[in-house]
Amino acid sequence: MTIIETLLREIPKYAEPALFNLYFAAVSLPIGFAFALLFALGKTSKNPIIRGLASAYVYAFRGSPLFIQFFMFYSIMLALNAVWWRPMGISWLMMNPLFIGPLALVMNTTAYTAEIIYGALRTVPRGELEAARAYGMTPYQVFRTVTWPNTIRIAWPAYTNEVVFLFHATALVYFTLPVIDGQRDIMNTARNFFERDYNAFLHFSVAALWFLAISMVIFFIFGLVYERLMRHMPKERTASRPRLRFGPKYIR
Amino acid sequence: MESEAFWLYDLVGEDIAFWIGYLTNGKHLNWYASFRFTIMAAVFGAILALVFGLLGAMAKASRFAPLRAVGSVYVGMVRGIPDVLFFLFFPLAFEQAVEWVLAMQVCTPESIAATQAKWPPCREANWLLTTNQYLILACVSLGIIYGAFTANVIHGAMRAVPKGQLEAARAYGMSDFQVLTRIHVRQMWVYALPGLSNVWMLLIKATSLLSLLQVADIVWWAGQLGSPNFLPQAGLVHGDWRWAYYIALFVFYILVTLLSEKAFNRLNLWARRGMPEEG
What pLDDT is recorded for position B16? Predict the structure, then answer.
């Protein structure tokens, strides 16, 4: 009985820290998605310079650990602090983990999402594109009415995984960035409690429970969006309507 | 000794000679040596991940329902929870479990009463891990985490082996176990390779987390070497150079990814030899 009581007393302590994880994910994802679209289009560009730059960016940020990327961005910001940020008087913003965290996460999720969108862009049916062009649509109209709806539907299951794993990646933020004003995320809170009474099983399990619960909620919401995106398709599972599976492809 | 060093100065000039000297000083040699931790974690982590993956896949495909449930929970577990949490939890939990067993052997009521801290129960039961022990625990940790991903990949690959091949083997009078070890597992690798290459990439990236387990790995040394360096005799040697060291690590990991990708492409071509072209 006491075990359950201890658990129940422990769980609410992570509600506020969880907001920090949610903040990092919620800020990074929309910005990252917008950039990812640009990079994905850049990867399909006919201009070899744009294509090369976009591909190199995506490769670099998918091919290196997020942990290193956090350290890299933080140290670069630290080095620029004396020359730029402090003279400009924006040190309070640029050195804030609430800014650097999303910055690094945006750079990272942009690369992963761009790869997902790029993969989806290439599977858009050629015939539909040709038909749209035959109707005399401008390139923007083709993108707006044919390419984009097809792409988002194909990319959505993979993007759902990316969102869940970006949320998991927010656990790394306070391993690399300084904690100021007691702003702690779930992992940092768990480690803090652990260092007080060395009860690894309790604190880490509850932290894991929080991550699991929020991952499930994200997955549920994205599943609803997927249903809405696919509402014109027959309900049966067919090859053109794959089941949204909670299957990880890439994490960091 | 000095005359020996001067030929270098004449050859490459003062600036480059300084950089050669700087990059080969004792601390930097320690940094280069610490790459062994990362490499060992990657290699042994991968071997363990393969072992756990095979066990997990077999459990998941088992006919015995509880075993199947264990396999499913194991594979599903890593999906909802960040890998860094597991990476920290397993070694800590193992350490505490050992200390708990130890405490039952060595602790007396008096020594427990004399202990102020909450853990371990008494001072005799305290287990201070060395770097190598932490490294072993980190490898096991990586093996468990990425074993779950591997299990998923292998489970899929086992089902991708054409049914006809297995039926042919059974028609030759092989037992179930013979079909599994002689045909099924051997044919499975071709289908598993692309997925395994993905898991390997994840594993490499996860080796950057070693410093969280108090292993003085490449990331820890990069932070040490880059920090502002002040010597009483020489004044400020250099300012904050951490950015340069972290960018070096960033490039290092990209190069490792590039090389692994090439190696896996080769391996895939070799494994697919004699098979019909795809698509």
Answer: 85
| A217 at interface of B, judged by CB pairs closer than 8 A | no
Tally of CB atoms within 10 A around B222: 26
- In chain B, which residues have their Cβ closer than 8 Å to the Cβ of A72? 243, 246-247, 249-250
Cβ of A68 and B202 within 8 Å?
Answer: no
Q: Which residue of A has its CA nearest to B218?
A: A68
| Closest CA in chain B for residue A245 | B79
CA dist A41 and A129 (Å) reads 16
Residue pair B133/B146 in contact by the 8 Å Cβ criterion: no
Taking residues B197-209, report their average pLDDT. 93
Mutation test of the interface with chain B: which of A67, A80, A164, A188, choosing the one with the most B Cβ atoms within 10 A? A67
A109 CB-near residues (< 8 Å, 6+ apart): A28, A29, A32, A33, A36, A162, A166
From A204, A247, A251, residue closest to B85, measured CB to CB: A204
Q: Which of the four pLDDT bands, split at 50, 70 and 90, describes residue B200?
A: very high
What pTM did the predictor assign?
Answer: 0.88
Residues from B in contact with A at Cβ < 8 Å: 78-85, 88-89, 92-93, 96, 117-119, 149, 152, 198, 201-202, 205-209, 212, 219, 222-223, 226, 240, 242-243, 245-247, 249-250, 253-254, 257-258
Per residue in A36-68, pLDDT (tens digit) is 999 999 999 999 999 999 999 999 999 999 999
The whole-number pLDDT of residue A251 equals 40
| CATH number, domain A2-229, options 3.10.580.10, 1.10.3720.10, 3.40.120.10, 3.40.50.12780 | 1.10.3720.10
Q: Where are the domains of chain A?
A: 2-229
Element containing residue B252 per DSSP (H, E): helix B242-271
Query: What ipTM was predicted for this assembly?
Result: 0.88
